[in-house]
């Protein structure tokens, strides 16, 4: 930390401090914070100087609190633990969305532009796509939870339909979580992520008997899952069935609702014609989603 203080930017020092705090188990996190907090706060102080004509402004508790908020967000992304769990005081947080990076990311959309995208593309839906679109929107409007499965061969318009649904929901300033099993597929959706990133699924999920997502109730991602109107999981046929079981248990806990998926709505999409050739025969029936959650 002392060497980094001489050569690194405040943000780089904060990154290093977060890594030390989450992975190295320091004996006195408070001592490290008191010693290096000014070095980690210099850019925040510089912004205050830029926005004020008053000279002589020094470090304050408000500046240090903003740095603690940033540090806690970094620690949450690394190990899903708050600063208080890591031996450091927790920051005072405004409950406003602007202090929550996960919620901000899921609501950082131009609703007017999304509305312009929806209107000309909605008439392009085929009859089957229109039935699926109307059914999902009806479930959202009536706050009806459960699982819906969109099964169709490749090239039949699943991605187009999913993107239209996401745009329709987000244009109303509501949260729709978009996921796809592979990173390439995730990039085809606005703000799309892999389930491993969005849900913090365990790496050894196929060997564990009882699986849950590694998401703390105090984290921003927990608030996203608690408030989202729909979660979309594309290419789910490539995922192990325990991934869905982990999501089910996590949502029941976060939403404090013992219904399936905590009463939330999940749209699964994929093509069961594709994974069959790449799964070892004797493992196929024990890993497919359709056993635990039939279509």
TrEMBL record:
Gene3D superfamilies: P-loop containing nucleotide triphosphate hydrolases. Its cofactor is Mg(2+). Its EC number is 5.6.2.3. Signal peptide: none annotated. It catalyses: ATP + H2O = ADP + phosphate + H(+). It comes from the Eukaryota. GO terms for biological process: DNA recombination; DNA repair; telomere maintenance. One of its GO terms (molecular function) is ATP hydrolysis activity. Keywords: ATP-binding, DNA damage, DNA recombination, DNA repair, Helicase, Hydrolase, Nucleotide-binding. The keyword Hydrolase applies. It is an enzyme of class 5 (isomerase). Residues 125-281 form the DNA helicase Pif1-like DEAD-box helicase domain. Transmembrane segments: none annotated. SUPFAM superfamilies: P-loop containing nucleoside triphosphate hydrolases (SSF52540). Belongs to the helicase family. This is ATP-dependent DNA helicase.
